[in-house]
Amino acid sequence: MTVLETRSQHGCFDGIQSYYQHSSETIGLPMRFSVYQPPQARSQRIPVLFFLAGLTCTEETFMIKAGAQRYAAEYGLMLVSMDTSPRQTGIAGETDDWDFGAGAGFYLDATEQPWSTYYRMESYITQELRQIIIDQFPADPNRIGIFGHSMGGHGALTLALRYPDLFRSVSAFAPICAPMQCPWGQKAFRHYLGEDQQNWRQHDATALIEDGRRIPDLLIDQGLDDQFLAQQLYPEALEKACREAEQKLTLRFHSGYDHSYYFISTFMSDHLKHHRDALL
Amino acid sequence: MTVLETRSQHGCFDGIQSYYQHSSETIGLPMRFSVYQPPQARSQRIPVLFFLAGLTCTEETFMIKAGAQRYAAEYGLMLVSMDTSPRQTGIAGETDDWDFGAGAGFYLDATEQPWSTYYRMESYITQELRQIIIDQFPADPNRIGIFGHSMGGHGALTLALRYPDLFRSVSAFAPICAPMQCPWGQKAFRHYLGEDQQNWRQHDATALIEDGRRIPDLLIDQGLDDQFLAQQLYPEALEKACREAEQKLTLRFHSGYDHSYYFISTFMSDHLKHHRDALL
User: Fold this and answer.
1) Residue A206 at interface with chain B, using a CB cutoff of 8 Å
2) Contact assessment for residue B169 and residue B279, using Cβ atoms and an 8 Å cutoff
3) Is A266 on the interface with B (CB under 8 A)?
4) Residue A126 carries which DSSP code?
5) Which pTM was predicted?
6) Which of A160, B59, B61, B207 suits B12 as a labelling partner, its CA being 20 to 30 A distant?
7) Architecture of domain A5-279
8) Contact at 8 Å (CB) between A159 and A144?
């Protein structure tokens, strides 16, 4: 069984907030993740929610800023988050850009060198980390949901679409809905996946739905003052694909809210209720 | 009227989270503070809660980590926090120690050179910042409370004790209860206030109560896994002084909780209710 190094542990809403590091077989380097165990975890196997964070974030960001533990403690949900990429791979230029490389793994397995050796976040989350959570925490493997923010919203949507047997509920805050159409996604996909756009479609939520994939009822919240909305996020493209495919989608736009965790924290209770209703 | 530079603004729980900078007359340098205005602020003057943060923190820490906006929006309380010291004064050694100098103003007016020129956090908060909040925000000047964490808990207690006309409610998370008795306090007081311990008593919550000062009903939460409890915080000293002085104190110890914002966030709703009950 994977040996976990506990980096820190904190009491939080009658549960435990923990940070771990381990040697990842999938990535080939140390990886870090965080777990919030609500009080219900002391006595039973409980549902789990994976949260995938956005560009530049780490395994800490969600746990510090989102204010989710309060609701997780109320609803009996375990929360899991993880770093947003491998770190210190030694690949030249890895830390040159804030929107590509370190902190920007885009939750896929790169197929192109030099990235393909280490940048394997999709396999890391869906196989290795998922198995660690099932083996070493009181998690119910049949009740796992996934959600995320921005790049992590893209990750939640695409992993839910690609692994419908693994994730029973899904939602997102301000996700990159159509990465093939936006600068962030095009830059990442070109480097990680190469030039063939047919491969890109496997990692684009809008394209996956156009191509016939389906997920459980989807909840998305989007701020209208989001500085990245017009250029990077394309919720309208996803909405159109869902409508044409009869994929159920609740897409809510909120005036006065931006791309920050102040926005995320505001609507966190709705998202945790959404997952609770699907998982409990 | 003081000109405020708005550094950022974010929608949050149907209210507004804002960060400001201004040229401080009291400090003689730019100072930063943060305000959360709940939705009730759109239509009326509302009560205000000042939060004083701990060592190494800034005006952002509480607003990012404490999860207080949710309750402030529910109860109709404005939240105000501020940086924990002047910055970039040019004083030699100012940033050498994490527990003294920059990030460690201890919420008093230094009397000793070189600190006395700039380190005037007590006057800054009780006069200049308080006036800014009253003049430029929909604040009710007769309903202002104060709370804080660690060094900021010390600040909340001592400012409430020294200015009973300004603060109508007070509480603290893991405060430094008797700074004259602990290494953090002794180091700060020696440098800021000089060697005469009679002057120190004016800035030590336990001594102020011993010397006859009183405050409204006081709520303190303290984690029993707090790594600073034994050496730095001395809640028992404060409890003894309160008991002997018949100062009303609710002091709660919590097993499994440490000194972090995971602890603070867990008991935030109780503190905001405590202030709401006193201020509404």
Assistant:
1) no
2) yes
3) yes
4) I
5) 0.97
6) A160
7) 3-Layer(aba) Sandwich (3.40)
8) no
Query: What pairs with residue B33 in β-bridges?
Result: B20, B82
H runs (alpha helix) in B164-204 = 183-193, 197-200
* Digitized pLDDT (tens) for each residue of chain B, 280 residues in all: 899 999 999 999 999 999 999 999 999 999 999 999 999 999 999 999 999 999 999 999 999 999 999 999 999 999 999 999 999 999 999 999 999 999 999 999 999 999 999 999 999 999 999 999 999 999 999 999 999 999 999 999 999 999 999 999 999 999 999 999 999 999 999 999 999 999 999 999 999 999 999 999 999 999 999 999 999 999 999 999 999 999 999 999 999 999 999 999 999 999 999 999 999 8
- Give A 50-89 residues with CB within 8 A of chain B: 64-65, 67, 69-70
The Cα-based distances of A218 to A145, A153, A238, A247, A278 in angstroms read 11, 11, 11, 8, 11
Q: Which amino acid is at B152?
A: G
Report domain extents, chain B: 5-279
Tokens matching residue A187:
């830059």
Query: Which three-class secondary structure state does DSSP give residue B138?
Result: coil
Q: Which residues of B touch A265 (CB under 8 A)?
A: 12-13, 67, 69-70
Rg (CA), chain A: 17
Residue B226 known to be catalytic: yes
Chain B residue nearest residue A224, CA to CA:
B11
**Hey, are the CB atoms on A261 and B225 less than 8 Å from each other?**
no
Residue A225 near chain B (CB below 8 Å):
yes
Q: Touching check for A187 and chain B: CB below 8 Å?
A: no
